[in-house]
Amino acid sequence: MITGATKAKVDDVWQKMWEGGITNPLEVITQLTYLMFIRSLDAREFDAERMEMLTGEPQRHIFPQTPEGARLRWNFFKDLKAESMHSVVANEVFPFIKKLNDGTPFAQCMRDATFGIQNPKTLQRAVSGIDELMRDFDDHIGDLGDLYEYMLSKLSTAGTNGQFRTPQHIRQMMVELVRPRPASLSATRPAERRDS
Fold first, then answer.
1. Which of 25, 42, 106, 115 could covalently link to 158 via disulfide, CB atoms 3.0 to 4.6 Å apart?
2. Which of 28, 5, 2 is CA-nearest to residue 125?
3. How far apart are CA 155 and CA 64, in angstroms?
């Protein structure tokens, strides 16, 4: 069971995403899940490194053991400035996780995944919030189910603040179909005045 303090952290991250323009609750959950997954990969890499130091035996690594591979890790980009962080995550980290374990069901599920955080400040706030939130689960990873249950409960209240908006491509299509013109609007107004 997650505590009130943990719920407050989730609400804080959720609010930061909403303020950054990501108001569809499903999209918020999706993007937060990607970020939590990226953080968990780094935690697993640290475990492999510790085991390697303890046993002296090579372990299977997630990230390439190169300077470029180090840039893909949460602990590298989490303290970068907003624009640099966004560039690294959008152009390097996200493409890396999409190709992770190529040929597996995971890779097939990630094939159409898109990184949806366009605002660098929103990403920086989300990364900071997730880093703080996930510290509550580092020693109790089994409680992540409760965390997701709480996030999914937000779907039942969705729409109360106008979170569901018509996507831009749909709005553009509607405008194309109707093709409103100033001349057509002014032509109908005088007739409306005569009728009234």
1. 25
2. 28
3. 38
